[in-house]
């Protein structure tokens, strides 16, 4: 019996349990949950759990590095793409950095900065956004639409007491 790859955290395993509707107690430790899930690997086609998690979170150091690049790009764009400021020597460096950060679409700052660059230099960059982030964004849009104030008309008799 193979072990579930350590890049799958307890939260990831709980998502698998809920999606596949497995009868496993989620209050157990990560190791015990992994042992229980490994009993159902073939039954529910979960062989991907043996390989490295492709959705693993960025390390703090990597995320900080990406956000620094975003700040640099944003500052350059706000300065009107002025090459004299010294942030970038030419637009190719800007495009290279934008292509690099566009693969980290799970970070909201990256999505905003890529949109700013697209507006300034009229080049489309594909932003790689994981499915679970897309679902969260759609959910937020629905909440935002539901929160838009609108006129409500209520009819009938009303009693007002000013005492």
Compile the SSE list and pairings.
Elements: H1 10-20, H2 30-38, H3 60-78, H4 91-101, H5 108-121, H6 131-146
Helix pairs in contact: 1-2, 3-4, 3-5
Description of the structure:
By secondary structure, this protein is mainly α. Among the domains are: 10-50; 60-132, no CATH class. Helix content is 49%, strand content 0%. Helix 1 packs parallel to helix 2 (30-38) and helix 3 (60-78) runs antiparallel to helix 4. It is flat and about 60 Å long. The termini are far apart. The mean pLDDT is 87.
What are the defining features of this structure?
single chain; 163 residues; mainly alpha; 49% helix; flat
Quick take:
With 163 residues, the protein is mainly alpha-helical.
């Amino acid at each position: 019996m193979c072990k579930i790859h350590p890049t799958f955290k307890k939260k990831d395993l709980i998502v698998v349990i809920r999606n596949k509707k497995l009868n496993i107690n989620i209050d157990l430790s990560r190791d015990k949950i992994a042992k229980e899930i490994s009993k159902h690997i073939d039954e529910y086609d979960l062989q991907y759990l043996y390989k490295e998690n492709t959705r693993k979170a960025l390390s703090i150091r990597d995320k900080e590095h990406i956000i620094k690049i975003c700040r640099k790009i944003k500052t350059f764009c706000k300065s009107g793409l002025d090459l004299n400021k010294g942030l970038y020597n030419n637009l190719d460096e800007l495009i290279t950095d934008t292509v690099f950060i566009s693969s980290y679409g799970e970070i909201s700052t990256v999505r905003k900065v890529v949109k700013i660059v697209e507006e300034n230099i009229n080049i489309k960059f594909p932003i790689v956004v994981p499915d679970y982030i897309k679902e969260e964004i759609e959910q937020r849009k629905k909440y935002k639409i539901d929160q838009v104030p609108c006129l409500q008309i209520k009819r009938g008799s009303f009693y007002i007491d000013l005492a």
